[in-house]
Amino acid sequence: MKRAVISDIHGNLEALQAVLKDIQAQGVDEIVCLGDIIGYGPNPCECLDLVIQRAKWTILGNHDQAALFDPEGFNPVALRAIYWTRDRLDEGPGGAQQINRRWDFLGELPRQRSEGDWMFVHGSPRDPTNEYVFPEYIFHQAKMEILFARVNKYCFMGHTHLPGVFTTACEFVTPEECNYVFKLTNEKVLVNVGSVGQPRDDDNRSCYVIIDDVAGTVTYRRIEYDFLTTSQKIYAEAELDNMLGDRIKHGR
């Protein structure tokens, strides 16, 4: 089975549409989403509708959670964006049934999902929603051992928007370093799938992965999209900080 894993869409409709188009061309059997469908970006409702329609299942992200409850630990830019996002979700588009469907979908999202050797979270194996696992954590062996102790074999996550694979040897393998294809073995790994809508690794192309169970591989896909249209939408909204439009141009 081939499974596409997407994460951190952040209301970026142009990016999500480009990624879904690419997925359709890859012969993928199913799509799963690791959360943060909304927050930061200008099209939360449209992105939610697409994920509801196309993803087999979805994990709760911290921005999804913040839209439902009081945000914790958000900087002023993110906080203003999530309040703006709440208003957009309340106002539509669509009638009352569609508006309620989006809220119900968010409210029912699980914090993690496990399928045998496969674990899926937004943040980390220890805190599925909120904990960041940054590449520099490879220099903190004790921290990495704690995280790996909670994983049967393979854990897929998002949240940092920084794609790459953590190994038990305290290495962080970027997509470029493995030529965009990482071979799975019996060793435990933590796989960050990158971000569809707000990449932060100095590459402004959308990022997602395809898991091929038969080949035993994780393939990173980088997809170009019309980020100028997205950024202009952001600039047009007073409550969305201009830096949110700037950063998607540069991928950081």
Question: How would you characterize the overall build of this protein?
Answer:
The chain has 252 residues and is an alpha/beta fold. It has a single domain, classed as Metallo-dependent phosphatases (Purple Acid Phosphatase, chain A, domain 2). It has helices at residues 13-24, 44-54, 62-68, 76-91, 96-107, 141-148, 227-235, 242-250, and strands at residues 2-6, 30-33, 57-58, 112-115, 118-121, 154-157, 164-167, 172-173, 181-183, 189-192, 206-212, 217-223. The strands form two sheets. A six-stranded mixed beta sheet has the order 3-2-1-11-12-9. It has a six-stranded mixed beta sheet with strand order 4-5-6-10-7-8, with no helix packed on it. Helix 2 links the parallel strand 2 (30-33) and strand 3 (57-58). Helix 3 packs across helix 4 and helix 7 (227-235) runs antiparallel to helix 8.
CATH homologous superfamily title = Metallo-dependent phosphatases
Described by strand count, sense and barrel closure, the largest sheet is: 6 strands, mixed
Domains, number: 1
Helix content: 25-40%
Based on DSSP secondary structure assignment, what is the total number of beta strands?
A: 12
Which runs of at least 5 residues are low in confidence (pLDDT < 50)?
A: none
Number of H/I helices: 8
Provide the structure class: alpha/beta
CATH fold annotation:
Purple Acid Phosphatase, chain A, domain 2
Topology as a string of helices (H) and strands (E): EHEHEHHHEEHEEEEEEEHH
Mean pLDDT: 96
The fraction of residues in strands falls at 15-25%
Level-1 CATH class name: Alpha Beta
**N-end to C-end Cα span:** 33 Å
> Main sheet: which strands, in order across?
3-2-1-11-12-9
The CATH architecture name reads 4-Layer Sandwich
